[in-house]
Specification:
Blueprint lengths: L13 E3 L6 E10 L3 E8 L5 E8 L6 H15 L9 E6 L3 E7 L6 H8 L4 H20 L2 E2 L8 E3 L5 E3 L6 E2 L19 H4 L7 H16 L9 H9 L11 H10 L10 H5 L2 H4 L31 H14 L6 H15 L28 H6 L15 H14 L23 E5 L4 E5 L5 E5 L4 E4 L5 E5 L5 E5 L8 H17 L32 E6 L3 E6 L4 E5 L5 E6 L4 E6 L5 E5 H7 L3 H23 L1
Antiparallel strand pairs: 1-2, 2-3, 3-4, 4-6, 5-6, 7-10, 8-9, 11-12, 12-13, 13-14, 14-15, 15-16, 17-18, 18-19, 19-20, 20-21, 21-22
Helix pairs in contact: 3-5, 5-7, 10-13, 10-15, 13-15, 13-16
Bound molecules: adenosine-5'-diphosphate.
The site of adenosine-5'-diphosphate has 21 residues, from strand 2, strand 3, strand 4 and strand 6.
Length: 627
């Protein structure tokens, strides 16, 4: 709106609606806009507080200005949604036009950002989700807002977001209608609006991208010192990301800021993006966020407390969100219920899937889980620090259980693959069971090699094949170099070397993940560095069922290799995500976030194996508890 000096409304202490006689007591000035002054107004008969937007008639004397004001009132008065500023009523007297609106006491997101400079991802998810809900509603009423910006996103006392200021809004008259002109200049103008080629709802999606960027980065994406240059950048889609932004933030922003309006995501798709689905969204925010960033769990939505409660809530939320796609919520819920009932019969009916019998024969040879806490307390060995973040087997089992409970069973919504970076998933590509004589040898994907001996002690080569780590059966840890092997361990080291050479030379790896990309096995060097200071991830436990061999690593990875078809299920944790890797009969691997499987489902092949994995894990957890 123009900035030249224009008459401002003259308002007395009491505002009277001449049609009804209602009186409002004028309170503090809430803000000034291009045309309006906004005051807190108390309705005297009810005591209710409102925001009164007051515009001097002299200020909108030109016919197009008057029409514009009338259009704003007409559009806004038809809207009623919790994320849109409530429209109470409007009236006029000789001097002014009055619009009585829901009071948003905590100013706007613009004010908040000015105080905070940038917002955290969790806060952005919280605000954006509400803005998108309000916008979905508006679009469903054929209304394009056309001036979405932080200053038009108002905040209530309870920190709810309400979209306001419909000064540039337009209503589409028919399906496929496009607006060609706009009187006024939106803050976050979309390229198609600049190009005057016709625009529609997608212009709001573009503005959402600008809003999201601004909240996370602290400045708008195309901002320059000259408007001309800013417009050139918008036309050429020229903007950059600071290094600090997460992958998901960058991805969602670049989708929203797609030049071609038809290639931008729908609002439903936006809510299903990883930025929202995989990140923490607070249920409520306190007004203290105006001054201080809140502390929330970052992206570890799948972390569980001991009872798995957070996980369950999170999956429930996801499931709820995924049903947004269904028009009929009730039908969707009964679908889920039916699917859940079916799942209690263990296997989905799919003839192409090998049916795995649920009955288990678990034999646990000489291996015990090593309790790192216990190890730390022992005085005889080196101080121990776990190398990786580890999750307990109970947590892994809980994750899988929750995932299976919530995932869609009857539809497979094409779960997105996880973009694993190189060696992210640590797993067991080779193993040899020589437990009838010595023990169980195994090679991990980081090229470390270990043996669990029948006397319950274990030994492993560090990936450099220079350092050796020995965990005695009384839980002491000894780390030494190949150049200084303690004499009492020489036989075990020789066996380790033997297992290691055997696996290097005779066994093929069990799949293709994180292996080919890695460097060849390092040759031992004459000058050896210091031994590895931390306890490297190691195999805690292995056992056979009648169908598969199960292996559990100290970093929380659980792997099940099926004997019959050589397929493998690997459940791992990589600091922020629970992942599922499936290696198929052709030894081709696919990795997914467990969260995504809970959300989108999986193929029948994976499902049947996951159900079996759950059985094996249950048995393992029960055995752990007994021990
Ligand atoms: P204009 O259409 O003239 O630009 P705005 O709608 O932007 O006017 O309102 C002007 C100012 O009034 C806003 O910047 C804001 O500070 C305040 N304001 C507007 N609506 C509300 C509301 N519902 N609750 C509280 N303050 C409001």
């Amino acid at each position: 709106m123009g900035s030249e000096k224009k008459p401002q409304p003259i308002v007395g202490d009491i505002v009277i609606n001449p049609e009804s006689g209602e009186q409002y007591k004028r309170g503090r000035l809430l803000g000034k806009g291009g045309f309006a002054r906004c005051y807190e107004l108390r309705e005297m008969s009810t005591g209710k507080l409102y925001a009164g937007k007051i515009v001097s008639k002299a200020r909108i004397a030109k016919p197009n200005q008057w029409e514009k004001m009338q259009r704003e009132i007409h559009i806004h008065s038809q809207l009623d949604h919790r994320n849109v500023v409530g429209f109470h009523k409007h009236f006029e007297d000789d001097e002014n036009v009055y619009v009585i609106l829901e009071l948003c006491n905590k100013k706007s997101l613009l004010h908040m950002l000015k105080l905070r400079k940038t917002l955290t991802e969790s806060e952005v998810r919280y605000f954006m989700k509400q803005v998108i809900e309000g916008l979905r509603y508006m679009h469903s009423c054929s209304v394009i807002h056309r001036d979405l910006k932080l200053g038009n996103m108002f905040l209530t006392d309870s920190m709810e977001v309400k979209i306001g200021d419909f000064g540039l809004a337009a209503k589409l008259e028919f399906n496929g209608d496009r607006k060609r002109t706009m009187c006024g200049t939106p803050n976050y103008i979309a390229p198609e609006v600049l190009g005057k080629i016709g625009h529609s709802f997608e212009a709001d999606v573009w503005a959402l991208g600008c809003v999201l960027y601004t909240m996370l980065v602290g400045r708008p994406p195309f901002e320059t010192t000259s408007l001309k240059e800013t417009y050139t950048r918008i036309k050429h889609n020229k903007y950059s990301f600071p290094d600090t932004l997460s992958y998901d933030s960058k991805d969602i922003i670049s989708l929203l800021l797609t030049s071609e309006p038809e290639d931008r995501p729908s609002l439903e798709e936006v809510l299903l993006h990883d930025f929202f689905v995989s990140g923490y969204i607070p249920e409520v925010l306190s007004p203290t966020v105006f001054s201080t960033a809140p502390h929330f769990p970052t992206t570890k939505v799948l972390m569980s407390d001991s009872s798995g409660e957070i996980v369950r809530n999170e999956f429930c939320r996801l499931r709820r969100e995924s049903t947004m796609k269904h028009d009929n919520m009730e039908a969707a819920m009964s679908e889920i219920k039916a699917a859940r009932e079916k799942s209690t019969h263990l296997m989905p009916g799919n003839s192409s899937t090998p049916r795995l019998r649920p009955k288990l024969h678990v034999t646990i040879p000489g291996s015990r889980p090593v309790d790192l806490e216990a190890v730390r307390e022992k005085s005889g060995g080196s101080p121990v620090k776990p190398a990786n973040y580890s999750v307990s087997i109970v947590a892994v089992s809980e994750m899988l259980r929750t995932c299976l409970r919530h995932m869609p069973k009857e539809e497979y919504l094409h779960t997105p693959r996880y973009k694993a970076i190189g060696d992210e998933v640590l797993w067991v590509p080779k193993w040899v069971d020589y437990s009838n004589k010595y023990g169980f040898g195994h090679q991990l994907s980081d090229k470390s090699v270990g043996v669990i001996f029948n006397d319950k002690s274990r030994i492993c080569f560090h990936p450099d094949r220079i350092s050796v780590q020995y965990l005695s059966n009384d839980h002491r840890v000894h780390t030494f170099r190949m150049s200084s092997i303690p004499p009492r361990l020489s036989k075990k080291v020789t066996l380790l070397d033997y297992f290691s050479t055997y696996m290097d030379e005779h066994l093929i790896k069990g799949g293709d993940i994180a292996w080919d990309a890695m460097s060849p096995i390092p040759k031992r060097k004459a000058t050896s560095p210091n031994p590895a200071p931390t306890v490297q991830p190691y195999l805690v436990k292995w056992y056979r069922t009648d169908k598969a061999i199960a292996m559990y690593l100290s970093n929380g990875t659980f792997q099940l290799n099926f004997f019959e078809d050589h397929t493998k299920i690997i459940l791992s944790y990589n600091n922020s995500d629970h992942l599922l890797t499936y290696i198929n009969e052709d030894r081709i691997s696919s990795t997914y976030r467990l969260l995504h499987i809970a959300h989108h489902g999986c193929t029948a092949d994976i499902y049947s194996r996951l159900v079996y994995t759950r059985e094996v894990l249950d048995k393992l957890v029960a055995t752990e508890e007994e021990e």
